[in-house]
């Protein structure tokens, strides 16, 4: 790979800037000053230093985000704040995109990456990657709802969902006499507004929704809303192995 391409990919600067830095003696490869920014380097082997700082090349980034409400799952939008807006410039440079989407008013786990193959595998209907949500539902969710979800329910457009696993955590009566139910639901597909529409099909309404798991990836409980971190090597390996 050309040295200027490597440095450019890592967000160090433009090709003209990198050329100027090389001529100024700011770039070293394996301890040697490099005046020609077009030389070939091996990103896996060669040690590249820019102004005394080692530049470690990587092609892909994998980012776990705890998406807050009010932010849309898109890479750009003229009016709305996007999940990409929550990232620093050094990560935005890799041009990551959200793997799937969470509704604007849904919180929780969102994976962002520029690895198209992994994203495709995680979203492929053939892979049946499980996604787990916690929700607060207006209405008393009971075992009959769990049985219906296990069978698959018919949505408002006639689509019958694949079997889903419902866990009821508890109920709470409100001051106005209505009941709120607290649940955890695992689905293996991702139709538009699917969790909300599944509960609507049994006469209930989702009033709070948060994704906590996708495949083998669990939302880090340390991450506050709007915070992110890069996935660990162990998390990434588990995700990749799960898709094989």
From TrEMBL:
<keyword id="KW-0694">RNA-binding</keyword>
<keyword id="KW-0413">Isomerase</keyword>
<dbReference type="InterPro" id="IPR036986">
    <property type="entry name" value="S4_RNA-bd_sf"/>
</dbReference>
<feature type="domain" description="RNA-binding S4">
    <location>
        <begin position="1"/>
        <end position="64"/>
    </location>
</feature>
<comment type="similarity">
    <text>Belongs to the pseudouridine synthase RsuA family.</text>
</comment>
<dbReference type="InterPro" id="IPR006145">
    <property type="entry name" value="PsdUridine_synth_RsuA/RluA"/>
</dbReference>
<dbReference type="InterPro" id="IPR000748">
    <property type="entry name" value="PsdUridine_synth_RsuA/RluB/E/F"/>
</dbReference>
<dbReference type="InterPro" id="IPR002942">
    <property type="entry name" value="S4_RNA-bd"/>
</dbReference>
<dbReference type="Pfam" id="PF01479">
    <property type="entry name" value="S4"/>
</dbReference>
<dbReference type="InterPro" id="IPR050343">
    <property type="entry name" value="RsuA_PseudoU_synthase"/>
</dbReference>
<protein>
    <recommendedName>
        <fullName>Pseudouridine synthase</fullName>
        <ecNumber>5.4.99.-</ecNumber>
    </recommendedName>
</protein>
<dbReference type="InterPro" id="IPR020103">
    <property type="entry name" value="PsdUridine_synth_cat_dom_sf"/>
</dbReference>
<dbReference type="InterPro" id="IPR020094">
    <property type="entry name" value="TruA/RsuA/RluB/E/F_N"/>
</dbReference>
<dbReference type="Pfam" id="PF00849">
    <property type="entry name" value="PseudoU_synth_2"/>
</dbReference>
<dbReference type="InterPro" id="IPR042092">
    <property type="entry name" value="PsdUridine_s_RsuA/RluB/E/F_cat"/>
</dbReference>
<dbReference type="InterPro" id="IPR018496">
    <property type="entry name" value="PsdUridine_synth_RsuA/RluB_CS"/>
</dbReference>
